[in-house]
Design a protein that fits this description.
With 165 residues, the protein is of the alpha+beta class. 30% of the residues lie in helices and 35% in strands. Its EC number is 2.3.-.-.
């Protein structure tokens, strides 16, 4: 049985492993070098310090996916707007984990006082993330053309937005 729960220290290697797959094998993230466990520890601490959620989907001790919110931009006037991030382990899609993670993330972000949630989705040719966000009421707010270059090609990003409060 899968459980959605807050990130723990023991989950960091699993999170790092999932993210490394997307860094090296896809254009879903514009990072080109995987983050190590210590980098994830620092990122998780900053998210917790901001009072924002970082969740994992687990079966037993295995991390099957994760989702978190971070401040959308560092300037103070953006303080009520968050950006979501969600990744599933290879082979874990199609089981409803993305829906479970995003639903809980939205709920907890709302409880934290966030008013807007932004999703910045790379145009990868795979519509799964766009469909997932649309299912929760996110609406397309814009497109940034050819803003990333990875794996030998230019990549657009699509901005999706959801009003939380």
């Amino acid at each position: 049985m899968t459980h959605i729960q807050p990130l723990s220290e023991a989950d960091l290697p699993g999170v790092a492993e999932i993210y490394a797959h997307y860094v090296t094998e896809s254009v879903a993230t514009f990072d080109e070098t995987p983050l190590d466990t210590e980098a994830w520890r620092l990122k998780a601490a900053a998210i917790a310090e901001a009072g924002l959620p970082f969740l994992v989907a687990k079966e037993g001790d295995q991390v099957l996916g994760y989702a978190y919110c971070a401040r959308y931009r560092p300037k103070p006037a953006y303080r009520h707007t968050v950006e979501d991030t969600i990744y599933l382990a290879p082979g874990a899609s199609g089981r409803g984990l993305g829906r479970q993670l995003l639903g809980e993330l939205i709920s907890r972000a709302t409880e934290s006082g966030a008013r807007q949630m932004i999703a910045v989705i790379a145009e990868s040719g795979d519509p799964a993330s766009l469909k997932l966000h649309a299912a929760f009421g996110f609406a397309e707010a814009g497109r940034l053309t050819a803003v990333g270059f990875k794996h030998g090609r230019w990549i657009d990003t699509i901005l999706y937005q959801l009003e939380l409060a």
